[in-house]
Design goal:
single chain, alpha/beta, UDP-n-acetylglucosamine1-carboxyvinyl-transferase, Chain, 2 domains, 13 helices, 23 strands, 29% helix, globular
Length: 443
């Protein structure tokens, strides 16, 4: 599907973004391991989390969906999963395949995990290696590089694993396998990545210990690593009743749009404000964006609040690196769009992880923003953008990556000529109502 985007006069109004994708995945997976009935409200009914929901059904979990779209999971406990009748299709979801690999690593049966063309090109050795150290019989295609994954469950042992790159998905896979291990498992990550797994498992009664490890800091980096320890539970995990917060990463596109489009003001309601997720907000504040946070409270074990965003003039260039990167890993594409309108040279580095997301997001944004007239230079681990740039409309490609499509849409709103986005339907992976809400705010 193609989508034609034209320059607009303003974005005004109030929106509620969709539910948090990361927490939606985890809610159905973790509740499926608990003992008792769990109730989940405000689940994200988008392709990726639905893949996780269907995967747990494939493993024999009793899941009911009410008329009001509330999910009821009748968990039978940690040892209740059953061997699937068929290969489990994870679609485009890296979260599904990586977290699920940790869950099935300790099960007494065989599981085969696969996905679509894109997912079958995403790196899996990073999760295979630690799970194999724990004793799992897990294998991937092309010498463990890619899916499909074949997992023959085994008795697992606790390990201490030092992660070379901060990754919430890999960390979560190891912690979930640690639930089934015979002793304590410790994960050390170089920077703190999103911590939804730790928060949720702790609320369910898992024994989790978190500690910062301060190392010698350099001038450019805050070298504070993090240790997460999990002990095999003495009892079953407790069931949960939760309302999932709304997704900050989805809200980020509207935050950027309001900042960039003249005459704009948007109120975004009930957005998750977990500090491991809001690096984009911190960077925009450094740029001088006109943003205000209101009504902060707790919901589902997570901080949430309302965000007021207004047109921001004279944005300043910034340097983004080190520990900031894991906190805005999903917002990189739209941050690049913001950087095109700042005064000076914006530098984003230490972001090599973006090469192996749904697309090579570094290469994708450089290629497509150049078509729109941006002065942008590509490096192995990031980009340099010289601003401000007067964007011009062009025919651009999404690479079937939902965040690339939405970021280029925001760029199109301020471009001088219409922008045609190819394969725009990929937004359904995380935000099926994206274009509908965008049109509403233009009225």
């Amino acid at each position: 599907m193609e989508r034609l985007i034209k320059k607009i006069r303003h974005l005004r109004g109030e929106i509620t973004p969709p539910a948090d994708k990361s927490i939606s995945h985890r809610s159905v997976m973790f509740a499926s391991l608990a003992k008792g009935q769990s109730r989940i409200k405000n689940f994200l009914w988008a392709q990726d989390p639905i893949n996780s929901l269907n995967a747990m059904k494939s493993l024999g979990v009793e899941i009911e969906i009410t008329d009001s779209k509330e999910i009821i999971i009748n968990g039978k406990g940690l040892q209740s999963l059953k061997e699937p009748d068929n290969v489990i299709d994870c679609g485009n979801s890296g979260t599904t395949i990586r977290l699920l690999s940790g869950i099935v690593a300790g099960q007494p049966f065989l599981t085969v995990l696969t996905g679509d063309d894109s997912l079958r090109q995403r790196p899996m050795r990073r999760v295979i290696e630690p799970l194999r150290l724990m004793g799992s019989n897990i294998f991937g295609r092309l010498n463990d590089r890619f899916p499909p994954l074949v997992v023959k469950g085994n008795c697992l042992k606790g390990i201490k694993y030092i992660m070379p790159v901060a990754s919430a998905q890999v960390k979560s896979a190891i912690l979930l396998a640690g639930i089934y291990a015979n002793s304590e498992t410790e994960v050390i990550e170089p920077h703190k990545s999103r911590d939804h797994t730790e928060r949720m498992l702790k609320n369910m009664g898992a024994e989790i210990q978190l500690n910062a490890i301060t190392k010698k800091a350099s001038k450019e980096h805050n070298n504070e690593a993090y240790s997460i320890k999990i002990k095999p539970p003495q009892d079953e995990l407790s069931s949960i009743d939760m309302t999932i917060p709304n997704d900050f990463s989805s809200a980020a596109f509207f935050i950027a749009g309001a900042c960039l489009v003249p005459g704009s003001e948007i109120l975004i309601k009930n957005v998750g404000l977990n500090p491991t997720r809001t690096g984009f907000l911190d960077v925009l504040m450094q740029m001088g964006a006109n943003i205000e946070i209101l009504n902060v409270k707790q919901q589902g074990g997570e901080p949430v609040g309302d965000i007021v965003c207004k047109t921001s003039n004279k944005l300043k260039a910034v340097t983004v690196q080190g520990s900031f990167i894991p906190k805005l890993i999903d917002e990189f594409p739209v941050l690049c769009v913001m950087a095109t309108q700042t005064d000076g040279k914006t530098i984003i580095k230490d972001a090599k992880e973006l090469r192996v997301k749904e697309s090579d997001r570094i290469k994708a944004m450089v290629t497509e923003l150049k078509k729109m007239g941006t002065q942008i230079e590509e490096f192995e681990d990031g980009v340099v953008i010289n601003g401000p740039c007067k964007l011009r409309g062009a025919e651009v490609y999404s690479y079937k990556d939902h965040r690339i499509a939405m970021a280029l849409t925001i760029a199109g709103l301020i471009a001088e000529r219409p922008t045609l986005i190819k394969e725009a339907q990929c937004v359904d992976i995380s935000f099926p109502q994206f274009y509908e809400l965008l049109e509403m705010l233009q009225k």
